[in-house]
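the three lines:
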Amino acid sequence: MNLRIQEPRAPKAPDAAAPAGGLVPVAVPSPPPASAIRTFLRERGNSRVADATFRWLMLLCALSIFAIVALIANELVVNSKLTLAKFGMKFFVGSAWDPVNENFGALPFIYGTLVSSIVSLVLAVPLAVGVAVFLTEMCPQALRGILSFLTELLAAIPSVVYGLWAIFVLVPLLRVYVDPVLIKLLGWTGLFMQPDFGIGMFAAGVILAIMILPIISSLTREVMTAVPHTQREAVLALGATRWEMIRMGVLRNARIGIVGSIILGLGRALGETMAVAMVIGSSPTISRSLLAPAATMASVIANEFAEASDDTYRSALIEIGLALFLVTIVVNILARLLVWAVTRGAPARAA
Amino acid sequence: MGGDQGRTGEGSLSNMANQPKSSTANRRWRWFTNHMASGLAVLSTILVIAPLVAIFIDLVYKGASSLNLNFFTKIPAPVGEEGGGMANAIVGSAVLLGVASMLGIPVGIAAGIYLSEYGRGSKLSTVVRFTADVLNGVPSIVMGVAVYALIVVPTKGYSALAGGVALGIMMIPTVARTTEEMLLMVPHSIREAALGLGVPNWRSMISITLKTAMPGVITGCMLAFARVAGETAPLIFTAFGNQFWSTALNQPIAALPLQIYVYALSPYDEWHRLAWAGSLVLIVLIVVSVSLVRYVTTRGVLKGAS
Amino acid sequence: MGVSIEVNHLNAWYGANHTLQDITLHIPANEATALIGPSGCGKSTFVRCLNRMHETNPIAKVTGEVKVGGQDIYSETSAVEVRRRIGMVFQRPNPFPTMSIYDNVASGLRLNGFRNRRVLDEVVERSLKSSALWDEVKDELKKKSGASLSGGQQQRLCIARALAVDPEVLLMDEPASALDPVSTAKIEDLIFQLKVQYTIVIVTHNMQQAARVAERTGFFLNGRLVEFDSTHKIFTNPGDKRTEDYITGRFG
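prediction for all of em together
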């Protein structure tokens, strides 16, 4: 039925391509002499060793990420032994920071880190969610690309440039226009009191807010777009307005992810160094007024490490670094778990 | 969550249907909140974009006026003297970034290859991925302290090497994760084609899979590069900074962001100007690479690969 | 010249799924053998076991014996070496997107370390002629990307790529299923010419195709080889009721 026989086209003897003198007969089961190419390929090894080596090399590099984190932790612990042993837990509750008398308490910096981060979150979160809502639900397609590019750029500006801008532009602006208004309106809370130098906790909070905005808004956008379209349609089908649709259909479903992105922003704010160090005023004091100079855990390391000449002083600063390391790890893990749970955790588990 | 939401929705609907009197007020309220919310969203977008625009205008305005040939060719002038530039800092940054790239890019790419080609779905790779994200979140100042303890203390001196290592470590997670993502985009059929030809596994990964994903992988490397190019905190007590020419790996070295930091906090106007000019250069470098990255990723990294 | 393939008690699994159950058959040299059956019957898995591609999936498992030219490919050699001897053409054309036409055809040799330029030129030309693509692409060999060809051309490029390593067996996993009728006819013509030199195993869901190109045909159903005989016999006088039902279109 199918024995339509055709002439083979070009004469293709198996050894047609044999280079001059390169033909070595090898013991292969097929009787005719193997072509040069077959001979060549037969003589290649099975590259088992190369494959195994490659695999181990790649594994090693992947594991190096582990090793690095472990190494960082180890270095920090070993080098802060001095103060760990000397002050113990008192280190974190003592409020005296006196390098001259070798008396170290990190409370002012913990306080500074917490308060500046909270101020930044209070300022950044509503804005970030607003931007995310605008970009995902309202923005015309053409504008969306440009705006998300701009927010990406915001994330790419180096901390030190933010710091420079804050010193010469933001701080004068705050001192002249913003702070007097705050003192007048909110002075009764005790949070905004004279004297006002411009630099201080509030300035640090504002620049931090500007810096963490892109992170929070882009992640919020991500979790919002991850909300299935059917959720929106379900709410719209009930006759909801756009805002009701966003509130009930989108934000409600995305809230865990949004909390995750806020915590991630917090992680960044806690460890942010340069911009804060440049505008916070570097004062190891706890004061109620946000307009007073303060210091954060990161800023005190940046500002004092180079001049810390004796071992205890240096050990104290490294211990602050260790605390910062542990806190940011915990915060990051928490945030990642939340974001993962929303964006990929759920479908992966279903698959 | 679903039931809750259904109830709210039904509530507003039954309000509309059964209570004609309050319905106008209700509708007006809903109209108001709807437009209010839209307005707030637009307002917050403007508020977010404003500082960005302000920063760029200030940078160009204050930086460009100090940018001249001297900036790129001279080392800093002594205090009180006019002129001087940041040539040593630019070269220093190049050296630091070179060292960082030599550490961060190969290790990052290799880790990415492991995650996508060997460890797909395995517990180990999940943990590695997670650790990479954690490492990404470690504050850069902590990285500086750790590298200080790791390299500066044993070698008894600040050095370009220490600074480069600190930056290199910070590049690894970014490079690894983007490499992984890009490799995952390479169609499985391409890998099969290579294996079907009897090409050894390692060769197929390098010459076929990685090569196909190359534009994306380069993008990831540039992203990591741009990110550490502006890092200051990890350099303060590793590279330390240097007012003079130096490219030696075992000596303190100048770096652009470090110099900006020092000059910004100095009391001299001349130095402030240089700080702005340095920031402008840094930003241009970063904007160019981020735009390039965006161009490459939106224009279909793996065109024709599907 | 091609070699014969002897399969004895081959079993294959995907995870807990027993996709091939105790397959035994003998595929003669220099003939085209077609494997037909409804989708999911195991015919693709079967050819993937013949060049050890099946095991590239981490959850896959295989037992039994496959002898190619007398050598057991599972116990007497390595996967890499087996695949150099047995070419494979996949269901969807999969040229390397970053490579030119020339580089695509040369890839099997180059990636295995072959460096002789003059021989490479010859091999590329010969392979492209064998796959009937030469005349269409000879002017843009090094300029044009393999991915820029049409679907049918891409598939012939993939055949040329498989032929360039001068294999003894050519496995084709539904090579024409993603192609238009004209390209399909070209591929079938090719199979006719190629079986003079190679042993060809072709998986197809198209029974007419099997009838046109193959000397022998095997019918797979639910992971088992129901019947294996000359194509003529299978299509005119099948020995098994299920085969008859399938080729007369009563199911599948």
